[in-house]
# Entry
Amino acid sequence: MRQGLKPRAKRLAKTAAKRCAGPQEEAYLRALARKIREARAQRGMTRSSLAADSGVSLRFLAQLESGQANPSILILRRIAAAMGFPADDLLSDQPLRPVEQRLLMQLMNRLSEPDLRAARELLARHFGYDGSNVQGSYITLIGLRGAGKTTLGHRLAKHLGVPFFELDREVEREYGATIGEILQLHGQPGYRRFEREALQRVLAEHPSAVIETGGGLAADPQTLRLLLEGSVAVWIRATPEEHMQRVIDQGDLRPMARSREAMSELKDILAAREPFYRQAHLHLDTSSRTVDQSFRELVELLERRAAPVAGLSGRGASASADR
# Structure
């Protein structure tokens, strides 16, 4: 009787896994199965010893290694701990990291945040991933709405004689729908993908440009890498209070309806995204500054960096504009 249950249990587990997993999830489960088998082989562990050390049943482990089980995160943590692997390595969509990468990560884990930034910049310069090898001249403006990206971006592009692109508008034009409609149809991951594709298209089709990005684009690690390697990235920032007031001045009165909640949410977003924004090559704080003052400082920052945009050096910065 017990033997007769095994095939049925296997079929039920397989059916349950498939019922809650689409094609992408099934592909992930197959990749996860390969990673667990590879990791176990690297450790020289039998399936029985891994089951014993992790507290996961041998039957479930066999189903997991064949891509037929859908494990919880807690189970994956137990399996990873039993093999001495970081749980992130199993959860990631990527293959197991090479030994050299793991050793490098161990070294990085010992560094402070300032040292990590210095190490990344050193590696980027050494291997040409710091924007110095860009074929063309691009300046990208990152940061939250209300910092002055659009005003400064338009003005900088006119000053340099290069086109100005707002990625949000490029996405809407390309896909023939509003941002809200795209988010409703494809969610945040889909919209971020469209944003990244729009950025890649601008970089490919124009030799020089000033590009304004959406507030959340730089918080995507893949896109952030593209910005840092393919352009001079400038973080345009302001205090939360000025961010809020400028949004209201632009005619968006929604924050007024729940000012205390909106300000708290804005501060949370700024705190969460700041580590990403800080990776930009240049930082410009527009708080308590006029547009003229902010623009002059932006041009000076770019000149000090010797930005490769044609015609940057030697031009004036006296034109006026409203924030």
